[in-house]
Amino acid sequence: MATVAPAVTQPTRTLPGHYYHDPGIFAREQERIIATSWNCVGHVGTIVAPGAYFLASLAGESILVVRGRDGEIRAFYNVCRHRASRLCTEERGQVHASIQCRYHAWTYGLDGRLIGAPFMREDPSFDPSQLGLVPVNLHIWEGLIFVNLSEHPGSLAEQAPETTHPRVPRYGIAGLRSAKTLIDEVKSNWKLVIANYQECAHCAVVHPELSAKVPDFKAGLTTGGIDDGAEFADGVKTLTASGASNRSPLPGLMPEDHHRYYGMMLFPNVFLDMHPDYVVLATLQAVAPDHTRIVTDVLFHPDTMARADFDPSDAIDFTNLVNQQDWGVCELSQSGVASRAFRAGGIYGPHERHIRHLDDLVLEKLGELPPGH
Q: Do 176 and 310 fall into the same domain?
């Protein structure tokens, strides 16, 4: 009796190697993906007082994010309308009622209006109302500040449907405050960093401390998302080296949240990790084909931070440990993407195949795949 050979299926492949190191592809990504997407650039808690500001770098542009005297947060290109000078040069700071260019003293209100321009009254054609700072699209979701350089941006919900999930508001992220900011310069392509975050097939090997506290991670399962999360091992209260914490759960959580971790990746640059007693916000900046800057804030409830015995070091240290483990293997991957052996790319295993969705999204936005292929 003849036997039927099993059907041969093609492996799910990664992008070819040059997508992770080619400067031309990186430049196209900056214009067609980064510049046209909503990118998180920070948390509202970092600019509380009127005149507080920070700078963000996006697709080759310097963006000034400032809180106005009316309490509103606005974003502008950090460029004087007179002779293109940079207005603010410190990464973050505090101004008073205005922002003044150091070149010719053109002065702008915190709402972007031009309110001072020496000698320009001598020009009868001069119209200061037309020469305010050029605004940048800004949207705030759960206290996270997003900017978009597109002339016609879609909504954040269209770009990242996960932002509408009903579980997220329970964490009260807008009201949390950062106890520590970690900044890492990772020698890896931004897509490799995202791909690493989206799977846990590497967890047992790379993250033994984390895997010991989350059984699904040790098994290499792709769990921990915002829908179902990942349950802690018995006796674990939160993700610290000991698994213990003297901090109370965040006040808006439901009982089922007290023993679980939830994570979200908001394309193209946000990792959001939600624990019972703290939240980790990581934002990515694609600096070069082989360089990603990652800013990580470890957020706690202000009431917890006000306690005399507040000590965030256990959460911060554990976050940094897992980060450094991840960044190290991302750099290992980057070291091989230009090899002749990787020109055709690699292969995704059973617990990694969903990452191909990210690859195809990148190709679609670069115009190399038809929409809805």
A: yes
pLDDT at 7 over 60: no
Question: Does 323 lie in the same domain as 199?
Answer: yes
Do residue 316 and residue 187 come from a single domain? yes
Query: Residue 370's pLDDT band (boundaries 50, 70, 90)?
Result: low
Predicted model pTM: 0.94
Q: What is the pLDDT of residues 205-258, one digit of tens each?
A: 999 999 999 999 998 877 789 999 999 999 999 999 999 999 999 999 999 999
In a domain, 31, yes or no: yes
Q: Does residue 293 belong to any structural domain of this protein?
A: yes
The 3-state DSSP composition of the chain as helix, strand, coil percent (nearest 5) reads: 30, 25, 45
Domain that holds residue 82: 39-159
